[in-house]
Specification:
This protein is α/β, with parallel strands linked by helices.
Length: about 400
């Protein structure tokens, strides 16, 4: 099949290899415990669904909606940022709704970047962080995200890596993409990190896009900072926020870009050509979600936290040394020594074939992810316990083969 130049720059998804095997095994009747994709399995709070239904029954809500988000929704996201992060946003100029944060990031890159521009993107990373600039025709320079050491050491090393990459880059990077709490590595940062990077970016006149998809999934007392909490960060930064994870609304496609007026103005202009926005009843129900008592999010967060406890304890028990992350719905696990030679794709295929457990191979998140796999805790505790038992059996049988 002929592929056009822009499509040729999009390689075949590494995850497709594992997904194809998963589909084949399922067709053969196997029960696969799917910890591969970060696709939330929880249901949004009942009153949010009720509001969606109520609004959908009205005669007036079925016309084209507003691409930038209806004014009451932009006000709700601005109020939410004030309540949660003490950040002031002008709902008309500093907040825009997007069709999930993935669409927001993609179209923001298309609005900002042209061939010849350079984007700095961490590796490992959520794939669209790399491919949105590629689709826009820009060049990408990857910045290694440190995978070993204490939180403070990782932050220090990452800042150093960004400074070095910036100096090595020609032309000078126009934009830096960040994502903390991070998918896939679960790395977190503190406000000092954002302070440093904002002041660097201002000096260099570089934009920052911070993907805050896991803002709500923080455990055991940790609270992730918003980059907009840094004074005047809005001069050069936007943050993307999403109802996908914390509110369990993945399929609803509700995201926001908040912060810098220039970036939001350009995104709004592009989107006004491309789309008519998310279905109005979804926008109306999203206002109810944002205005809700935060306990609805805490409930989901606690479920993911408990599942991670079960997964981490179970893996440690069977000899796979891992630590519980401070945030996200993932466990980023170094492949046990004796299997590391297989590489992350082959190791993931083995887990799938032999233990009926699907995970995401680290290399799918960029070359620096090789040697790791990512577990997403999107199955219940019972199923996670079953996954541990299956892996225990597999590892034991492998040991016996080696004897
Ligand atoms: C880092 C990150 N950003 C964005 C997204 C997509 O979010 P949304 O559903 O809001 O498009 C995900 C989903 O897995 C993610 O992990």
């Amino acid at each position: 099949m002929e592929e056009f130049p822009r499509i040729k720059r999009l390689p075949h998804y590494v995850f497709a290899t594992v997904n194809d095997l998963k589909a084949k095994l399922r067709r053969e009747g196997e029960d696969i415990i799917d910890l591969g994709m970060g696709n939330p399995d929880l249901k949004p709070a009942e009153h949010i669904i009720d509001k969606l239904c109520e609004s959908a029954k009205k005669k007036t809500t079925h016309r084209y909606s507003s691409s930038e988000g209806i004014p009451r929704l932009r006000k709700a996201i601005s109020d939410y940022y004030k309540r949660r992060f003490d950040v002031d946003l002008d709902p008309n100029k500093e907040a825009i709704m997007t069709i999930g944060s993935k669409e927001g990031i993609s179209h923001l890159m298309l609005a900002m970047l042209s061939p010849g521009d350079m984007a700095l993107v961490p590796s490992p990373r959520y794939p669209i962080h790399y491919y949105a600039p590629v689709i826009a025709g820009a060049s990408v320079l990857t910045v290694p995200l440190p995978l070993e050491g204490s939180d403070e050491e990782k932050q220090e090393t990452f800042l150093k890596n960004i400074y070095e990459s910036y100096e090595d880059s020609y032309p000078e990077p126009k934009v830096l993409i960040l994502n903390f709490p991070n998918n896939p590595t679960t790395m977190t940062v503190n406000l000092d990190f954002f302070q440093e990077i904002v002041s660097f970016a201002k000096k260099k006149k570089m934009w920052i896009i911070h993907d805050f998809a896991y803002a709500d999934l923080c455990f055991d007392g940790y609270k992730a900072p918003s980059i907009l909490q840094v004074k005047n960060a809005k001069d050069i930064a936007v943050e993307t926020y999403s109802l996908t994870k914390g509110y369990s609304m993945a399929g609803w496609r509700v995201g926001f870009v908040v912060g810098n007026k220039t970036l939001i103005h350009n995104l709004r202009r592009l989107k006004s050509y491309l789309d008519y926005g998310t279905f109005t009843p979804i926008q109306v129900a999203s206002i109810i979600a944002l205005d809700s008592d935060y306990s609805i999010v805490e409930k989901a967060r606690d479920i993911y936290s408990k599942r991670l406890d079960v997964l981490v304890k179970g893996l440690n028990r069977i000899g796979w040394q891992v630590e519980k992350p401070k945030a996200t719905m993932f466990l980023w696990a170094k492949i046990p020594e004796k299997f590391r030679h297989l590489g992350s794709v082959e190791f993931s295929m083995m887990l799938l074939r032999e233990a009926k457990v699907a995970v995401a191979p680290g290399v799918g998140f960029g070359e620096h992810g090789e040697g790791y796999v990512r577990f997403a805790v999107v199955e219940n505790e019972k199923r996670i316990r079953q996954a541990i038992r299956n892996m225990k059996k597999l590892f034991k049988s492998q040991q016996e083969v080696a004897k």
